[in-house]
Amino acid sequence: MTGAISISPAPIPGVLLAGGKSWRMGGREKCLLELAGRPLLDHVIGRAQPQVDVLILNAPGDPARFASFGLEVAADVIDGFAGPLAGVLTGMEWARTNTPQARHIATFPCDAPFLPNDLVARLREAAQSENAAIALAASAGREHPAFALWPVEMMEDLRRATTEEGLRRMGEWTARCKAARVEYPCQPVDPFFNINSPQDLAEAERILSHSRPSLI
């Protein structure tokens, strides 16, 4: 396992993780569901894209269904449904090939329309100040490892963990590393609120209809 890695001014690619199976949505693709008249994915892109140097989408299947969003789509580099860690590994390998000067990638799930606009900057600062290998978000005492900064240098370690050990849970991986936590308040809205069910989608609609943009 590699140790702590200093954060450099090198570019940071962003990876939108859209590999979930959306069981509680009846199999419908969550990120393409409409929220406030726009696809959920469009909300997430609007918040994530300004924070990174290039943004890609990690998703299985035919990439043509995402053509209107203007993002490169990268399928998992591990066969079968290997969970979100496979998306992290995919992002690392994409960065190694396409932005070799990058030292880190940032990840964002595609079902969180209120993610903070300053997330990557704060993750970067926390990793550097705490000399940590990984920086991840937290709120209400819970870690949210899908919102994180990951060093590309860990790519081979992560590949071994996912392919040889069968590791699937992000928390199991981050527990092996020195990880900095960036805590966010939950008021007026938990910025890491994610949409997993029709009820969550309705709640997101309610939040958007009752909140000023500056509060979200």
Describe it for me?
This protein has 216 residues and is α/β, with parallel strands linked by helices. The protein has a single domain, classed as Spore Coat Polysaccharide Biosynthesis Protein SpsA, Chain A (Alpha-Beta Complex), CATH 3.90.550.10. Helix content is 29%, strand content 21%. The protein is built from six helices and nine strands. The chain has helices spanning 40-48, 84-98, 119-129, 155-163, 170-174, 198-210; strands spanning 13-17, 34-35, 38-39, 54-58, 72-74, 104-109, 134-139, 142-151, 179-184. The strands form two sheets. Strands 5-4-1-6-8-7-9 form a seven-stranded mixed β-sheet, sandwiched between helices. Helix 2 packs antiparallel against helix 4. The protein is globular and about 45 Å long. The model has no long low-confidence stretch (mean pLDDT 90).
Overall tally of domains: 1
**Tally the helices: what do you get?**
6
The CATH class, by name, is Alpha Beta
Indicate the percent of residues in helices.
25-40%
Largest sheet: 7 strands, mixed
Query: What would CATH call the architecture?
Result: Alpha-Beta Complex
Shape: globular
Within CATH, the superfamily carries the name Spore Coat Polysaccharide Biosynthesis Protein SpsA, Chain A
CATH topology: Spore Coat Polysaccharide Biosynthesis Protein SpsA, Chain A
Proportion of residues in extended strands: 15-25%
Q: If strands are numbered along the chain, what order do they take across the biggest sheet?
A: 5-4-1-6-8-7-9
| Strand segment tally | 9
Secondary-structure element series:
EEEHEEHEHEEHHEH
- Straight-line N-to-C gap: 37 Å
Structure class: alpha/beta
